[in-house]
Amino acid sequence: MKVDLSIKERILVGNVLPQAKSLASMRIVQDLRNRLVPTLEEYEAWGIVETPGRVEWKVAEAETVKEFELARKESDLIVEALRDLDQKEQVTAEYLPLFDKFEVE
User: How many domains, in total, are found in the chain?
Assistant: First the structure.
């Protein structure tokens, strides 16, 4: 699956991914998180600054999206995590675009 994600969406996906699963699933989650993390070039270009519990960036520049090719298992883990968020009634407005991109109802 190909999906275009902004910096904010990449951070949100990283936040929603499971903290505990099977060994095989957690290796996939770790790899996916590593791919979603902004690169050094993105940090510099978009003025990304991290403080405890918060990430900030230049809004206009960070609206640029980056295309990711996700394996079936990767997209399944994201969909499962979004469904879990919905079941726990913890969906906030900022997550809605992810539900649309990953076609979760």
Answer: 1
Q: How far is CA 98 from CA 4, 10, 52, in A?
A: 10, 10, 24
Q: What is this structure's pTM? A: 0.86
Asked whether 82 and 99 are in contact (CB, 8 A), the reply is: yes
pLDDT of residue 46: 80
Contacts of 10 (CB under 8 A, 6+ apart): 36, 37, 38, 66
Q: Mark out the alpha helices in the chain (DSSP H runs).
A: 7-16, 23-36, 40-46, 59-62, 72-87, 96-101
Q: What pLDDT is recorded for position 72?
A: 96
Helix (H/G/I), strand (E/B), else coil: 32: helix
- Contact between 21 and 74 under an 8 Å Cβ cutoff? The reply is no
CB 9 within 8 A of CB 76: no
C-alpha span between 104 and 71 (Å, rounded): 17
Q: Alpha carbon of 60 to those of 31, 63, 67: distances in Å? A: 28, 6, 18
Domain that holds residue 31: 2-101
